[in-house]
Amino acid sequence: MVDEFLVMYMYKKIQAEAQATDMKTLERLLKKFRKVVAERREEYYQEIGEKKAQKLRAERLQRLLKKMERDRVSPHEL
Question: Sorted alphabetically, which InterPro entries does this protein's record hold (predicted)?
Answer without folding.
Answer: H-NS-like_N, Histone_HNS_N
